[in-house]
Amino acid sequence: MSKDVENPKYGVAQKDSEEGTDAPSHSNETQVTWYSCLLQQASVYGIAAGYCLSASLLSIINKWAVMKFPYPGALTALQYFTSASGVLLCGMLKLIEHDSLDLLTMWRFLPAAVIFYLSLFTNSELLLHANVDTFIVFRSAVPIFVAIGETLYLHQPWPAIRTWISLATIFGGSVLYVTTDYQFTLMAYSWALAYLVSMSIDFVYIKHVVMTIGLNTWGLVLYNNLEALLLFPLELLIMGELKKIKHEISDESDWYSFEVVLPVGLSCLFGLAISFFGFSCRRAISATGFTVLGIVNKLLTVVINLVVWDKHSSFSYTFILDDTAIIGGSVATTNSVEGP
After folding, report:
1. Contacts of 239 (CB under 8 A, 6+ apart)
2. Fewer CB atoms < 10 Å away: N or C end of the chain?
3. Range of the domain at 325
4. Do 309 and 132 form a contact (C-beta atoms < 8 A)?
5. Based on the number of CB atoms within 10 Å of its own CB, is 50 exposed (0-12), middle (13-18) or buried (19 or more)?
6. Which pLDDT score, from 0 to 100, does residue 152 have?
């Protein structure tokens, strides 16, 4: 009888003991999961901050660089060379890890490199023929087309109504600016239209490539910049920039002066930075979210532009436009910045 009584007690005690052992284990798993989520969120915000800082400053530095070195094609080629050689050098020194070069992968990546090259080239031409504010305005219209492309091509859900309202607000700010731009020229807005088309395709298609090609972030930076660099001779022939460069060489231009080397060198360094942070962001968030993030960071660009020189629209209209874009972009980001 005593054994019959003791055995159930022992069983209960044993069960309680097992439950007591499982409880801390479950608690530890919850802690680890929470900590991992926190680290992941911190990583995303850190990458986004790096991208915003790089993009904001690069817009101004590029404008400064093309004023001192008026060859947008050559400038972008120098940026490609710096980024590709920088990745290879750091890889040789074991500072970073990148995917090795492979001809098949290069062929698969080629369309993305061509699109990226066109978007960067039209960006440089737009900055050469227009003020920074005009560049910002047309950059602000890109998310509308990216949202449509992401749904149709990447098979993502249509954005929420609040997102569409936010994107429409950004576009409304763009229209407001165009009606007040005192430096309106047909050439500037032709390049602006080309920039709008190339950037819209860039954000959608490269998002697809980033998620499917199987390269790490530094591998993407290497392949993208190396292949874009290989396309540079074609641009020299099409745009006739080679003749202009040869003429400047014969005229003993001051290319090697500090006034030229400083902005060009900074643009190359920031080109590498934005290439890394840009591909990291493309992995972490949606194509539309990444596009909107690029608009949010333009507030700093406008502030620096107003302080440094007078190549912008009127002060009041600039800030009305930019505030509209920032507010609209922030709301849109709430809906669009999700996982890949």
Report:
1. 73
2. N
3. 2-336
4. no
5. middle
6. 86
- 103-129 and 132-153 helices, crossing angle to 10°: 140
What tokens appear for 295 in the block? 């608009």
* pLDDT of the residue at 276: 93
Q: What residues have CB less than 8 Å from 215, skipping those under 6 apart?
A: 99, 105, 109, 223
Q: Distance between CA atoms of 82 and 137, rounded to whole angstroms? A: 29
Residues with Cβ < 8 Å from 280, sequence gap 6 or more? Answer: 47, 50, 51, 217
Question: Token pair for residue 128?
Answer: 């050469």
For the record, the structure tokens of 313 come out as 């629209």
Structure tokens at 135: 């560049």
Residues in the chain predicted with pLDDT less than 50, given as ranges, are: 1-19, 21, 315-316, 327, 330-337
pLDDT at 248: 64
For the chain, how many structural domains are there in total? 1
- pTM for the model: 0.72
How many Cβ atoms sit within 10 Å of the Cβ of residue 318?
22
8 Å CB contact between 116 and 109: no
Question: Kind and range of the H or E element at 308?
Answer: helix 298-308
Q: How far is CA 10 from the centre of its chain?
A: 64
- Helices 132-153 and 161-178 cross at an angle (nearest 10°) of 150
Structure-token match 């040869």, residue found: 246
pLDDT at 247: 65
Query: What is the per-residue pLDDT for 1?
Result: 46
CB 68 within 8 A of CB 259: yes
Strand blocks (E) in the chain: none
How confident is the model at residue 55, as a pLDDT? 85
